Structures are given as C-alpha cells and as structure tokens.
Amino acid sequence: MTVADRLWHRCRLATLSPQREGLGIVEDGVIAAKEGIIVYAGPRSETPSGLDAAERTDCDGRWITPGLVDCHTHLVYGGNRAEEFELRLAGASYEEIARRGGGIVSTVKATRAATEQELVSGAQPRLDALIAEGVTSIEIKSGYGLELATERRQLCAARQLARDNPITVRTSFLGAHALPPERAGDSSAYVAEVCEMIGPLAAEGLIDAVDAFCETIAFSIEETAQVFARARECNLQVKLHADQLSNLGGAALAARSGALSADHLEYADETGIAAMAAAGTVAVVLPGAYYFLRERQTPPIELMRKHRVPVALATDSNPGSSPLTSLLLTMNMGATLFRLTVDECLAAVTREAARALGLFGEIGSLEAGKRCDLAIWDIERPAELVYRIGFNPLHARIWQGLTT
Length: 404
Fold this sequence. Notes:
- There is one protein chain.
- The radius of gyration is 21 Å and the shape is globular.
- Strands 1, 2, 3, 4, 5, 14, 15 and 16 form an eight-stranded mixed beta sheet that branches. An eight-stranded parallel beta sheet has the order 6-7-8-9-10-11-12-13.
- The chain contains 15 helices and 16 strands.
- The protein starts with a strand and ends with a strand.
- The protein is an alpha/beta fold.
C-alpha cells in the first residue's frame, strides 16, 4: 500500500514526460505526492493498488501542468530605464544608447547605489507577478554591479528572495555583462577582475552558474572563454548570452564549453546550432527582448528543429531590453513572433527550461521521483495558455507539494 500526503484526482494532465508523446497528455489523471515528491502521476486506471492520501483534491476536470520555469531573468536591479525607452522610440538603437554610456551602465549606477534590502524590495513585485502565473522555479542573474561588492549584493538579494517566497531560485553570476565605467577601453583588465570574483562568490555559496555576454558591444570569444575556464576551475556550470546582435560564434563556444544553455541566438548559424545539438546545450529564445528592441532577425527555429536542439522560452526580465514579467505572454510571443507551436511553447517553459537550469532531474515534468511543483489551470485545452493575451487562468499553484 502506498500512502501519500496529498492526492489530486479528476484532472487532465500535461505531464511533459519524454516517455509520452507530445505534451504527455493523460485525460483522466491522478497525481499523488509524499513529502513534496511525486509518487505517482498518470492515468487513474493505472493507479497503484492501495494508493491513498490524507488530503484529496477533486480538480473537477481542470488541467495540471508542471509548475512553470522562467530560466533567464535579470530580476534584481536598481532603478528603471523608461527614459531610454523614450529615446528608442525617437530612433536611437540599443547599441547607440550603450555606446553613449546608457544601457546596462545606467542600471549599474542605480544598482550600486541600492542597499541589499532595496534590491529585494524592488524585485519582489516582479517576482510576485511571475509567481501569480504559476512559476515555481526561476533563474536570477547578477551583472548590474560590475564590481565585487555590488555583484555580491545582487546575489545575496536573489538568495533572500528564495528564502522569502515559495519558489526555487537558481543564481547566475554575470560579471561579464558589460565594461564598468571605470574600466572603459580596458576589457582585458576587467575580465581578469571577473575571474577573480568567481572564487569568493562561489565559496560563499552565492553562485549556481556563470554567465557572460559575448557580443560586439560586450566581450569577445577569447575573453568569454577565459571566464568560462575560471568557472570550470570552481566546478560551476556555464551559460551564455550568444549571437544576439551579430554572429560571433557564441553558440559554438557555448557548445565547446559544455554550457547548459545559449540564450538569444538570433544570429546563430547552422554550425553553431549543430554544435549545440551535439553538446546537449539548450537554446533559450527570448521574444520579449526581440519585441522590445524591435529587432528583425528571429532565432533560427527551423535549424533548431532540424538538429533537435531543445528550445526553452524565458522572459529575460530586465530593465533595458525586456521589462517583461509574464511567462504566459512570453509563450504567446514565442508562438506569434517565432512561430513556435503550442506543444513547443509549453515544453519550453517547463521541461526544456528545467534542462536549461540543469534541473530536469528534479522538475519540469510530472513524473514519480520529481518535486511536486504543479500549476492547475481553469482551461478547456492547453492551447489556451499560449493563445490568450493578458489573461491568467491559474486556479492553484503547488510548490513542493503545498498550495501557495
């Protein structure tokens, strides 16, 4: 006899299990969990004999998906960049603003001036919006300090958000985001500083992965490789902002480095995509930035399909290029702007997003042995989650087996 803490029945499941076709749909499903871990997820007709639970929830035919995963955000920062938004509307490009000392550097100034508690308080409403849509796991990057003390404050704020909220937070150190104003024109010296920061931040338990922005307005392939080499010395996984504005070969570098993911990828070529496929590196596409910056080149989705590269979607929530705090809207953008299918979009914010964080062994699908992170929806079919704009049909959110 299997005894669970909680059991959900009379529900339809989109399990996202790789062992099932498509979304892994189960029309008459049951989920049971014990101590926050799924012990059964599947058809009612195949429920193990004797399975019971102290608490049973009748879902009245509602759909259940894995809890959503936002695998690329810059959620912790100071200030905002509404003024630069006005400049872009008047015709200035993202690159022009960055070269004039705006862009990332303007957020650096505001973030350096903020206390840790101010960073937590500023990020909390953004996190609340994502939690309200069924997000149960999130990645938060640093990268607006560009010096050790502020990078540490950002990462500490991310850890505090994890303690304060029912959500799993993974942190990425993005010291190689931009050149700080005091190091203008001296990227080699700053890259050395970034490498020096990794050790102490890792020792303090503040970093889950190391990220970098490999681009003409940021860091070269060689400089990024230096940062990744230091990350590997500290036994940290790596991720990469790659080929967003030009093709520097970032996708191929991510693959050579064994990166969890390469993100953006608008200008990635077939060589880079094929390398990612061979390495198992996830492609994280970010339609919020594409939309907000009014870009014209979409990521090579057909090449990703051809080479069977896992594709994830994320908000890229940040003050300058994607002030987006809705993963549901992100799915609609992924479908309308990048022509992803409904199945691809839903997999992209669950199963594949979990892979992009190195967490697919724990979350991202409804399978026995994984954490009981669920989103329960008032919908007639899964396509509604992608189709609707500005509408949230979340009925209940379960994190580690508990309703939140």
